[in-house]
Amino acid sequence: MQPDKPTAGPVSGVPVGSAPWSSGLFDCFDDYGLCCMTWWCPCITFGRLAEIVDMGSTSCGHSGALYVFLAVVTGFQWIYTCTYRGKMRAQYGLSGEPCGDCCIHCWCEPCALIQEYRELAARGYDPKLGWHLNMERRAAAAAAAPAVQHMGR
What we know:
transmembrane; membrane; PLAC_motif_containing; mainly alpha; transmembrane helix
């Protein structure tokens, strides 16, 4: 397993469903810039977090465009976005229930997206950079870290 990828419960040492979220669902206004962007353009916030959650297998643009399509054509984009909340919970052992994920996204999708985005940021990701630049940044930080030295005689 690569250390830069998110890990699920037993691998990370956290039982699935027991880890608390780094911020509350209604802590939306703690970051006004993210709050405004998400309330007026949720497709951007969703696209960014989907790329990180999918570990780069989908792009921000693709996920954001699919979000807009579903919102305009059906109005049920929240069904799509709630699946990513479930993926995040599985990857990080976060608390919550699948039914709760759908209810949260149905009734307060911007709050849910902001909470998910902030969770990724709390875990060391910068969703604005996308998956690949985050991995490059982590690799550079690991290469720059000093080697562990042992005391010898």
